[in-house]
Amino acid sequence: MAEGAAVARGSDGAADGAALPVVSVVVVNFRGAADTAACVRSLRADLDYPPDRLQVVVVDNGAHDAAELAGLEGVELVVSPENLGFAGGCNLGVEHATGTVLAFLNNDARPHPDWLRAAVRVLAAQPDVAAVASKVLDWDGAAIDFVDGGLTWFGMGYKRHAGLPDDGSHDAARDVLFATGSAMVVRAGAFRALDGFDERFFMFYEDVDLGWRLNLRGWRVRFEPTSLTYHRHHASMARVDTEDNARELFLLERNALLALYKNLSDATLAKALPAALALTVRRATARGGLDATALEITRGGPTEQAVSGPALAGILAVDQFVELLPQLAEARAVEQAARTRSDADLVPLMRRALEPAYNLPRYLAAHEILVDAFDIEAAFGARRKVLVITGDALSARMAGPAIRAWNMADVLAAEHEVRLVTVNPLCDPPTAPFPIGQAKPRELAPHVDWADIVVLQGHALELVPALKAADSTKIVVCDIYDPMHLELLEQGKDTPDEQRALDLVGVTRVLNEQLERGDFFICASERQRHFWLGHLMSLGRLTPAVYDTDPTVRSLLGVVPFGLPGKPPQQSASPIKGKLVGEDDKVVLWAGGVYSWFDPLTLVSAMGELAQRRSDARLVFLGMKHPNPEVPEMDIGARVRRLSADLGLTGSHVFFNETWVDYDRRQDWLLDADAGVTTHFEHVETTFAFRTRVLDYLWAGLPIITTDGDSFAELVRAEGLGLVVPAEDPTALAAALERVLYDGAFAAACADRIAAVRDRYTWENVLAPLTAFCRDPRPAPDRLPGLENLVPRAFGRVETVRRDIALVREYLDLGGPGELARRAAGRVRRLAKERLGRG
């Protein structure tokens, strides 16, 4: 921000003068006109929220109190001839709501003056929060009604700490599974994207189900203690229920099964549902004191037993659950297709999922039996499924992309169920602690369907069109460590211009589609991160929602360099000294392939100068033929061989390993060397490159000689790991090689500093941003379903006319009538596209 451009901010965290959103408060009435009138008066008189931004919608369920409520001022009254229940009444009220924020308040509750402002502050500051769970106390403010929600494994939601004194010990804001329907504030877009409350619940657990579904889709629900209300608890159920609360018990039992069936994954439901059904029956018989052995064949006497309402409630709940199964199956299909998070992700929000909830001896015994028999604890603790896709060859001789994918899979496999799949024809990998497979592009879909998280490289997204769809809910991590379009500028120099330009367009499109789709991105360095941040901004991904969720944007784009093994290298053979060269020769190693963006030519020329002074100096190229059969040899390989031969260095001072060294054998070559070298030209690819071979030099403790200009040159210079030389300066490079190879004290000092630095680059350490994301995977904030601006830009008729006149003048000044016509046509096309999208 420019100097002097600071913006003053008010208590709401918004710039002074910024409009608060319109909030529609929905109050459902059922034969409680006096309470409803008192609630509305409190909303209008006591609430500290601008009246012109507050809409109060009262729904009269059953039309009992319409005449009495009609006289309430500042209220939109909606009358339903039938009792729709709390869920249906709220949904009907939302149909008449105009706000971008919805608030639900029980009619026997009153808000603290800051109730809405506090909730709106949370929604404005945290765009990934869909709903704010208000703190609810009893009418006198002495005891807790709601400060946290819990959920049992069999689907019953409950208010944790309810009835305890409010001593302030539960006043920390926190993420919760659900908000209580008696006082919650929710984004209208998110609520409507989920089709609101499920009206099959009628009342009870409709709020649990909504919060569960929001969390499954990647939204957060946030408890905010300063968003405070007070609840009298007149309880509408008392007007229709029996003294033994059988109807309430029926709804609780049935709705727990509904929520369970809709929201659990297939694998968890397969274990939990049979156990939950059995437990519902045992609760019923235990509550009713029924003799469960009365019908044993060995017993005589009467078979009749008196069945109480509480016992009957559980049995009928199972019956009605079965009755609803056909339509529930449709709802379940919707929720399972839309979910982005696993059951394991939500276990912390369930708080104490294995709580039995009821203190009845026979019931507790059954609970223990069922939890053990169906292995319920393991069902809810199932590991996430992570798919890593690479396009590189997986074999003993792996190159950079495959090495990176392999190690990502290896580190993630410690916490998750991982598959590594390559689309390359060459798949002959070493033994691994995770499954590895090869798939043709058309065979990737089943792997993607299996996964909770997909980590992909290169062109992999192009091979799974379903992942690119706007409505795809799969969590996608894009590994963009390789700026392929920058590489192509160098690699394609020998290609005809027209083809080169087309190739560049194609590769850039591939990268853009990844950047437009991903939920999390990893790159190799801070330099690259700056580059990709600009790319994301240009594509419109750095939205206010993304930025406000995390101003550092590291939750969207993390730095994951290449890594090195935590175990030090150990030499089992000597492939260089005593074989290629003499035992006492000084060896500098080029540990990697020879590609167009590197400069091995200056290196060979420098070796020619050094050989004149040091007869025992040797340069060894580790591998000239890429292990991926789909990667052709580049022209630079032939050029460097030719230069070495012309200088008379090949076989005497310069040696080429024409194949490729096995990945787990490269340590023999590294430990046979005295120094490591990497040289490159000065161009834009260098600026953002990450030379992975340098990490192998760190691993082996080799002093490093590198050309200036990339991120590793900065590291080598800053940490004293070797020497940095100018690009294309053979004399300076020869001098650097000589010092590193022949100045023992200098080389030893470099090795000491390397030992202090290399632990930073173990795979376990460098992959920390990826492992952290996979522990709590969520869609990117701008991909959350139903995300809308809280305060949309709106123009009245006068403001619209003024704005259009100003634009007409501006376009005429810019280019006359032609410019005006062009802009007008563009606007018409844009409006048509928007209408088509909404349609």
So, the CATH homologous superfamily of the largest domain? Spore Coat Polysaccharide Biosynthesis Protein SpsA, Chain A
Structural class: alpha/beta
Overall pLDDT confidence: 89
Number of strands: 27
Largest sheet: 10 strands, mixed
Low-confidence stretches: 1-17
So what's the CATH class of the largest domain? Alpha Beta
**Proportion of beta-strand residues:** 15-25%
Quickly count the domains. 5
Q: What CATH architecture of the largest domain do you see?
A: Alpha-Beta Complex
**CATH structural fold name of the largest domain:** Spore Coat Polysaccharide Biosynthesis Protein SpsA, Chain A
With helices defined by DSSP (H or I, 4 residues minimum), what is the helix count?
A: 30
Helix content: 40-55%
User: Rg from C-alpha positions?
Assistant: 34 Å
Separation of termini? 39 Å
Overall morphology: elongated
Can you put this structure into words, describing what you see?
- The protein is α/β, with parallel strands linked by helices and 839 residues long.
- It folds into 5 domains: 23-239, Spore Coat Polysaccharide Biosynthesis Protein SpsA, Chain A (Alpha-Beta Complex); 246-292 and 307-380, no CATH class; 385-559, Rossmann fold (3-Layer(aba) Sandwich), CATH 3.40.50; 586-768, 3-Layer(aba) Sandwich (Rossmann fold); 795-831.
- 43% of the residues lie in helices and 15% in strands.
- The protein has 30 helices and 27 strands.
- α25 (711-719) links the parallel β26 (704-707) and β27.
- α8 (266-288) runs antiparallel to α9 and α20 packs parallel to α21 (635-646).
- The longest helix is centred in the C-terminal third of the chain and has 42 residues, at 797-838.
- Mean pLDDT is 89; it is low at 1-17.
